[in-house]
Amino acid sequence: xxxKDLREFIEKCRAHDEVLDVEGADWDVELGSLxxxxxxxxxxxxxxxxxxxxxxxxxxxxANPFNSTKRTALxxxxxxxxxxxxxxxxxxxxxxxxVTLVPPVEVETGPVKENILIGxxxxxDIFPAPRWREGDTxxxxxxxxxxxxxxxxxxxxxMASQMVATHDKTRCAIYMSPGRHNGxxxxxxxxxxxxxxxxxxxxxxxxxxxxxGLNVPWGLSEYDYAGWLNGGPIQVTKGVTTDLPxxxxxxxxxEGELVRPEEEPPIPVARFGDWxxxxxxxxxxxxxxxxKSILYRNNPIILGxxxxxxxxxxxxxxxxxxxxxxxxxxxxxxxxxxxxxxMGEAGLRHMAVVSIKQMYGGHAKHAALAAASCNAVAYxxxxxxxxxxxxxxxxxNEVLWALGTRxxxxxxxxxxxGWWASPGPDVLLSPEKRKRRQYEHSLAVITACKPFxxxxxxxxxxxxxxxxxxxxxxxxxxxx
Length: 480
Fold this sequence. Notes:
By secondary structure, the chain is of the alpha+beta class. It folds into 2 domains: about 5-310, Electron Transport, Fmn-binding Protein, Chain A (Pnp Oxidase, Chain A, Roll); about 335-455, UbiD C-terminal domain-like. The chain has helices spanning about 5-15, 30-40, 70-75, 85-95, 180-190, 205-210, 220-230, 320-330, 365-370, 395-405, 410, 430-435, 465-475, and strands at about 20-25, 45-50, 60-65, 105, 115-120, 140, 145-150, 155-160, 165, 170-175, 195-200, 235-240, 245, 250-260, 270-275, 280, 290-295, 300-305, 335-340, 350-355, 385-390, 415-420, 440-450. The strands form 5 sheets. Strands 5, 6, 7, 8, 9, 10, 11, 14 and 17 form a 9-stranded antiparallel sheet that branches. Strand 7 (about 145-150) and strand 8 (about 155-160) form a beta hairpin. Helix 4 (about 85-95) crosses helix 8 and helix 6 (about 205-210) packs across helix 7.
């Protein structure tokens, strides 16, 4: 079984020299900027901030939680000491054995109920919610978080990771992108003339965070999927002002409701640096999240995981998991798939790379279109690139080599129009499209492969063969 809470994960990381304690940082820009600077080293440590300026010792923020391959392996229970491609293979092997959903189990109480503030005692300012970057206009308590809601028609519980900004002591703004499940659920309550019950979890186990960031099918609770990832059921306890199931070992939970615009005017979303790498001003105001109760552990830890240009600092293994899910899906449709990868250097969701061993004419194009339509990666996808089996899709230099030497722009690139976009991170949406709420962009399908009909005559690669590479690394292990 994986980790029961965030603290156990941090201590396991500490045992592997993967944690760096930082004291005295300012919550206003300094904390977030230090985390981003450290993340420039893809194998840097998890940062645990304490004694944050203006706050008592023990009110902490953890940042860069999965910034190394070792912490990704620990969080997803994957082999240690291997690269991203091998991690994807290992997770794909788990997926091929089948996902057995494991529903949560309810317990009467848990550490999250060590401190409970209700009604007039609610005060969001007791937590050191950071203003992460210079261009942000607000403080975000929810970055590596869970937004929990229950569908009013079907009764299943949805869990998603959304940006949550504090607005004042009792109110927050939660941005929900069009088409996402929790936005649909919210609108169902509003259509009934009801406010929507919500719980926001601001620190939890890695498996919950990973599950919340995935595009699981409608009607499937991320709690059940997290139970499979976890190797056992997630313990939940009923909220004190909602009947929503809360992770019993969570660090901080904000309970309340999204308020209908007719009852209280919507509020603006604070400007923030989004995952595409730009500051985003959300033009539309959002319904108020009115906080009715706060539950938190002694010495609470905010899981700070804001989107960044440097994807490894915030994806929490999502690149590995999404790639494995894509590979598993393609295995059911396409023969000869050798690997998949979501290229973080282009923004995690913008570019998918698929490696195949070509077997028939049109095989590469078939694989590209099948990959594009996979639910796990379709949202905000802008490029699908298919390469041959001698190209490692996790290595950007090899993918660029294939693009430069095996892609004829006239014959190898097709454009699909009207693809699923978002008003937040899609900075290329024109003002005209935004005005008419046309949240669509184009998708490029690129086959950077040897031409199949004369593949045997294609010049051989001068790269080391995998067999020789393995032999040399074993013989000369001290060099590697």
